[in-house]
Amino acid sequence: MADPIPTDSGPDEEVEVQESVHERLDPETRARRDAALRLVRKFGDPVLKSRALPVERFDDALVREVARMGQVMHESLGIGLAATQVGVMHRLLVYRVEPDAPIAAVVNPVLEWASREKEPMDEGCLSLPGVTVEVDRPVHVRVRAQDERGEAILIEASGLEARVLQHEMDHLDGVLILDRTTREQRKQAMRALREREREQDALGATA
């Protein structure tokens, strides 16, 4: 999930970081972000519509996978990343809502409970660069999972943390934010994606 920033309308409201914000990054940070984003699978890649498989082995390889995903997420300026977004078919996600908090690994997550109370909010996605759509999600959730060492964990989350968890768990089931929004917003998002592809093709032709 793309990194959100607060709006002027209140501390509880979030909007996704837009390209204009990233253009103000220093050159070194922008270069790291661009390199990290090249590792993230983009819309149209079949893996993004595939259901990930449960993790059965909790070993050093999994710990290294978590560390790699955490680095990609951090350098992409994201707040969540699912394994399928980097082409790994594991039911694994990493996230960090607060900038100074440690990156959390969530393995084999199961949504145990979600509140009836829902809230609409704009969401972006590292796999859908430049696209934001409004998604209605439960405000509170309880997720049962394991950490990267196989220890059982229970996460009770609200607000942005709950949204990030739901967003990344959707990825593990092959569900994108385009599948969670209105038909009109989906059409607008597809137009934006096509326009971005044309711009990139034009840049590639002149490089």
Walk me through what this model shows.
The structure is a single chain. This protein is of the alpha+beta class. The chain has helices spanning 19-22, 27-37, 60-75, 159-172, 183-206; strands at 4-7, 10-16, 80-82, 92-95, 104-114, 118-124, 132-138, 140-146, 152-158. The strands form three sheets. Strands 3-4-5-8-9 form a five-stranded antiparallel β-sheet. Strands 1-2 form a two-stranded antiparallel sheet.
Could you give the count of β-strands? 9
- Count of alpha/pi helices: 5
Q: Specify the structural class.
A: alpha+beta
Radius of gyration using CA atoms only: 17 Å
The main sheet orders its strands as 3-4-5-8-9
Q: pLDDT under 50 segments (min length 5)?
A: 5-21
| Main beta-sheet annotation | 5 strands, antiparallel
Distance between the amino and carboxyl termini: 30 Å
Overall shape: globular
State mean pLDDT (0 to 100 scale).
Answer: 89
In percent terms, what proportion of residues is strand?
25-35%
Output the helix-strand order: EEHHHEEEEEEEHH
